[in-house]
Structure formats: structure tokens, C-alpha cells
Amino acid sequence: MKNPKQEIVTFKVDHSLLQALHEMPNRSEFIRRAILEALENVCPLCQGTGALTPNQKKHWETFAGGHSLEECDNCHEIHLVCENQGKNGHPE
Question: pTM value?
């Protein structure tokens, strides 16, 4: 099977980021991996925009009524806890 054609993408960076990228042994590979990792960690609700639409906010408020944000005792990350689950998001 033939490899799909790769395309070149360009973007602007500030001087300090440019200097940091110049120190990378394989900038292209580093940037590809960073973008793929970021895409795998996009918020499922806002889809990476960082903001909710008015309708998404209404849905969130309904959902949040039965859930809370808590810090995990083990990893110390903030996570959602359903009122039907025990401490640290584990079912009782």
C-alpha cells in the first residue's frame, strides 16, 4: 500500500519557543508527537476550545448537580466524582 502524501504545516512562534525548538534533535518528530498527544487529551465537553457554549453550560450545570470535583488522595489530580461513587471516584 502506498504511503499517504505528507503535507507541510507552518505556524508562528515567539523567539523563546523558536530557540527551544532549535535545540531539539528532530523538531518535526517532536512537534508531531506533541500535537498528537494534545489531541488525545482534548476535553470531551468543550472539544479543546476552553469555553462552553450557552447550551453546553446548561447541560454541564444539570450534570454537575449530581457530581462534584474532588482531589484524588493518591495522585492529587482533580476529577469528577458521581454522588453514587465512593471516595476518589471508585464505586462503593
Answer: 0.57
CB atoms within 10 A of CB 70: 14
> Number of helices and strands (H, E) in the chain?
3, 2
- Of 32, 5, 27, nearest to 17 by C-alpha is 27
CB atoms within 10 A of CB 87: 10
Decide: helix, strand or coil at residue 35.
helix
Convert the pLDDT of each residue in 33-69 to its tens digit. Answer: 999 999 999 988 898 899 999 999 999 999 999 999 9
Identify the DSSP state of 23.
T
Question: Which residues, listed in sequence order, are joined to residue 69 by a DSSP beta bridge?
Answer: 80
